[in-house]
Amino acid sequence: MKKYGILLVMFCFVVLQMTWSQSHKKSLPRPDGNICWSVIDDIPVYPGGTVALRQWVIDSVAPGLNSLKSSAEGKLLISFVVLENGACDSFKVVKSVAPEIDTLFLNGLKKMRRWTPGKFNGKPMPIKFNFPITIKRERENEKNTVPKTKE
User: May I ask which residue range the UniProt record assigns to the signal sequence (predicted)?
Assistant: First the structure.
């Protein structure tokens, strides 16, 4: 009987926790004092989707890597807010690769087209978006090589 009592208490705790977390709206304050929602109904979408966004970065921003002195590689994480009108604002480097590379991508992403804004309860809302970028340089010995296949 004691075992069932403990299970009942644990079950009540889980149900209470789930109910509480669903009833409280999760939001993040922005520097200008407005609220940026983190739990939403519809996420912001770049025109053409994620594939189009990545292709735009490859075509428009990444070519600038060749002119930089830095040869650093790694994962760059940039966050920004997609506003109610689809414009992007509040760009911030969350995870850096190198200052020179960070600046290149920050300045490039600020030139993005307007997005379809995210929605909460059917209304456009400012939504924070995290965009990971992998920086990997092509090495001289990797150029023009055919990948080996298993036999």
Answer: none
Q: Residue written as tokens 């600046």?
A: 103
**Paired tokens of 98:** 């190198």
Which residues does 26 contact at the CB level (< 8 Å), separation at least 6?
Answer: 37, 38, 39
Backbone angles phi, psi at 26, to 5 degrees: -100, 125
Q: What is the pTM of this model?
A: 0.66
For the chain, domains (ranges, CATH) are 36-136 (3.30.1150)
- 95-143 pLDDT, tens per residue? 999 999 999 999 999 999 999 999 988 899 898 889 999 988 776 555 5
Q: Which two tokens stand for residue 114?
A: 């307007």
d(CA 143, CA 151): 23
